[in-house]
Amino acid sequence: MAKQAVKFEINLTYRCNHKCDWCNRLVDTLPIPDSDVSLEQLDAFCQRVRKDKIEISRFKVAGGEPLVHPHFLEALGMLSGLYRDGLVQWFWVLTNTMAPTYPTLPPGMSWRRSPPSSKNHDPLLISPKDLGFDAKFGFGERCLIQTLCGCAFEAWGYAPCALAGAYAHLLRINVWSPDPVWAGTRELCEHCIWTLPRAPRFRLWDLGREGSLPFPSGTLKQALADAQRDLVRFPRYQPSSRGMRRKCQEP
Ligand SMILES: C[S@@+](CC[C@H](N)C(=O)[O-])C[C@H]1O[C@@H](n2cnc3c(N)ncnc32)[C@H](O)[C@@H]1O
Ligand code: SF4
Ligand code: SF4
Question: Is residue 16 within 6 Å of ligand 2 at its C-beta?
């Protein structure tokens, strides 16, 4: 059977030079310290992709704002090796366009610009579990975020999606793995609106926008207050961990 290409996203840092309302990395409500991916971690990530010959149809460099990473250009230089090796087809670097200057990107990479004035963020931190909905996607069948953006890598390791890291800090669930992971866990996904099919998800967003559904919902409101008072510090990804030796699962 032909090998299936996957999608990948990296949260290079959770720091940002802006605070959009309802940022899905919680930049505006829950700043997460020590979130810069180190060059050593990035090197281990690239080695892993090469070793397992993971073919990536689209790779998004995200965050936070990737440009505020202290070694942004070195990081992109390392990642661009995957493009040169034919392991990545499309390489996008996301930005909020707030940086004073924009460097030339390595070959194969292009900017995806999204200025704050263009953003139309969906209401955030609405927990389906709080509202009595059954969790459906994310931990078995893929949710839309996993389908569109794939799984993620960040300072604490591999995550099932690029949104999970913020939720993990909020709910104090260690979601990361030293190996690529392609599925979330029920205990995390049941509090994420992307676990729902389209119709109820849009309905909840509409209610949130018009003000008839207060959010954050109960569990997440309490979790946010707790985390703002006392944020759990998860261990950072160690490049020498077993993740370097084990073969990753196919999605
Ligand atoms: C988290 S940002 C990271 C990259 C960069 N800082 C930026 O803003 O483009 C990635 C994308 O997620 C979008 N996003 C963030 N929060 C969102 C929300 N609540 N609903 C929909 N999109 C959201 C942003 O607008 C951006 O396009
Ligand atoms: S610019 Fe991007 S990362 Fe920063 S707060 Fe806005 S959406 Fe979040
Ligand atoms: S946390 Fe949300 S976006 Fe991530 S895999 Fe689970 S349902 Fe999907």
Answer: yes
